Amino acid sequence: MNETNVESIVGINQQTFKQKMAAYRHHPGSLVVLIVTILAAAITVGVLLSLIVYIVVKGVPNIHLSLFEWKYTTENCSMMPAIINTLLMTLLTLIIAVPIGVCSAIYLVEYSNRGSKFQMTLVKIIRMTTETLQGIPSIVFGLFGFLAFVIACKFGYSLLGGAITMALMVLPLIMRTTEEALLSVPDSFREGSFGLGAGRLRTIFRIILPSAVPGILAGVILAIGRIVGETAALMYTAGTSTDVCTGLLKPCRTLAVHMYQLLCEGKYMDAAYATAVVLLVMVIVINALSSFVAKKLTKK
C-alpha cells in the first residue's frame, strides 16, 4: 500500500495564484476590496510599529534607577508611586465595574428576552443608555466625577472618586462585550442543561458563563487599557499627588497623569519619555497576563 504524504494533500477548494488572478479579472470589484483591505491592515500595523519604535528610541536611553525610587522628588522624578497608584486604580475600578457589567449583561441576555412588554421597553432604554455612555468624552466624565464625588459627596481628590468615575467609563464596554459573549453561546447548551433538570441560575453560572469567559475577559482587557491610559477624568477626580496612595479617600497620580504632568512642566521631557516606555510595557504585560488567564480558563 502506497504511503500518502500529508503535506502533499491539497484541498479541492484551494486555488493557485493564476486561478485567483483569473477570478479577479472576472470580478474586479473583489480585487479592489482585497487591495484596500491589505493597505488598511498595512497602514494600521505601520502606525502601531512607528509609535512603538518612537517611544522606545526616545525613552529607553532615559531610563535610570532613580526613576524607580520609592519617594518622588523634583530631582529623580520617580514613577514608582505612580505605578503603584495605577495598579490600585485599575484593581478598584474592575472590582466596581466588572460585577455590575457582567450581571447587567446576564439580565439583558438571559432574562429580558422572555419578559413582559414593560420589561422589553426597559431593555431598550438600558441599551440606548449604554451606547450613549460609550460615546461620551472622558473629559465630561471627569467633570461629572468632580461635581458628584469630589464636591457633592465630599470625597475630595481621592482614589475612590477616580475609581467610581473610571467604572462609569468602562461599564458600557464591559456590558457590551459580555452581552456579545453570552449571545455567542449556542442555545443547545441551555436546552441541554434545562433538559437535565438544572435551573436557570445553575445553567448560567455552570454552563453559560464558563463558555463565555474568553469574550468577557476580552472586554476586561480593553477596559484595563482604557483605565491605565486615562488622564483627563482622573485629573479632576483622583488628583495629581506624587505620593503612594494609602487610603481610599487619599489623592493619587496614575502613570498616565504622571507623564502628562511631566510633559506640561516642560523641564522633565526625558523622564516623560521614559515613563511612556514603562506605561507601554505595563499595558503589554497586563494584556499578556489576561490572555494567558483566558486561555487557561478556556482549557478547563
Note the topology.
Layout: H1 17-26, H2 28-59, H3 80-111, H4 117-134, H5 138-152, H6 159-183, H7 187-195, H8 200-229, H9 232-237, H10 255-265, H11 269-299
Distance between the termini: 41 Å
Order of helices and strands: HHHHHHHHHHH
Strand percentage, roughly? under 5%
DSSP helix fraction: over 70%
Structural class: mainly alpha
What is the general shape? globular
Give the averaged pLDDT, no decimals: 84
Radius of gyration: 25 Å
Low-confidence stretches: none
Topology, number of strands: 0
Main sheet makeup? none
What's the short version?
This protein is mainly alpha-helical. The protein has helices at about 15-25, 30-60, 80-110, 115-135, 140-150, 160-185, 185-195, 200-230, 230-235, 255-265, 270-300. It is globular and about 65 Å long.
